[in-house]
């Protein structure tokens, strides 16, 4: 390669540690060797077929072609911006990708800034100069998310989740793509130019994260300083054989990072109407004494929504919780609604009271909750017009007063430490073993005297 090209490539290589540079420079040779490519002068470029043999393992063909056209359009001129597609030294003519273009692509996707990644993303969305339409960006993001999901499945990083017992994956991909694209600040005519994409990549961290994952896994780039992202929380103690969960993998990829620090592992299913029946009492047994929980609801019109409770639930006629609580929507849109600071009506759970509402609520006020499940079970409401005062959420259900289709409760924090961790089995109460019994006793208003008669724990 010439001196100008050498300078451009050396600047990119300088972003990697000395021990990482041979790995980056060796990707080109590995791709050719893996595809049975020629050696010597005839083997100076990478073809689409060679890239399909590597990236095609973890990504749909449409995504492989996007990556290839991006590499082909990378300019090798020092003065030209990457991926401008205007340099006479680029391989956009279809001859193939030269070694220098691959190195620049790797450096800008794996160690680049939002400003450096934006031209690459624009070229992956559409070849040539000019702005992209919002629907083109959405199609690119769908391909990118599908690639990440495929990587998680094929590499065994599902963390105990079983996609075949969960919601529709393709629907989840579209919903997550729409959520990510909702952060775009398009021009008045609905176009996304380079500056729009740069701002979007800077603010929407998933774009860079997913792109890095695709490139690292697809091209088999193993960097010493790279931390492999998990994306999914661990799932434990869940009986999948009879479960049909409301969650899907892309929805988990969105919801898990929304949980506050210190909460999020492992997730454990505590209640499902499909497994445990339509019982408010049984649902409360799952909610009580399990720490932070995630509640998922599907109404009979198909809307899926829920709320995160930052504290363990208590049966009492007062509001509880703190500002870490939030409401969310899964279908028809994927959104999270955080606290507004207007009031502290975060969580409410009550039963068998004559003067106070009986049921579970989050946000708003009595009679006008952002999310409400009646203690009779089967009925609820989301009266949030124009918005819920506590969370700023709109109406989450299809109709203001809805009928219940199904409910799930997930414990999302570390499980409580049992009293017999050190072998003290005799210290456990029957109320610890059967939380449903405790729930029933508390709902009747009776005092649980045995709670104060426990033997003190050993230091």
Automatic annotation (TrEMBL):
UniProt-recorded name of the protein: MTOR-associated protein MEAK7
Span of domain TLDc: 245-413
Record-linked InterPro entries: TLDc_dom
Coiled-coil residues: none
Localization annotation: Cytoplasm; Lysosome; Membrane
Record Pfam families: TLD
PROSITE patterns: TLDC
Keywords associated with the record: Cytoplasm, Lysosome, Membrane
An annotated GO BP: response to oxidative stress
Keyword Manganese: no
Gene Ontology CC annotation, any one: lysosome
Domain of life: Eukaryota
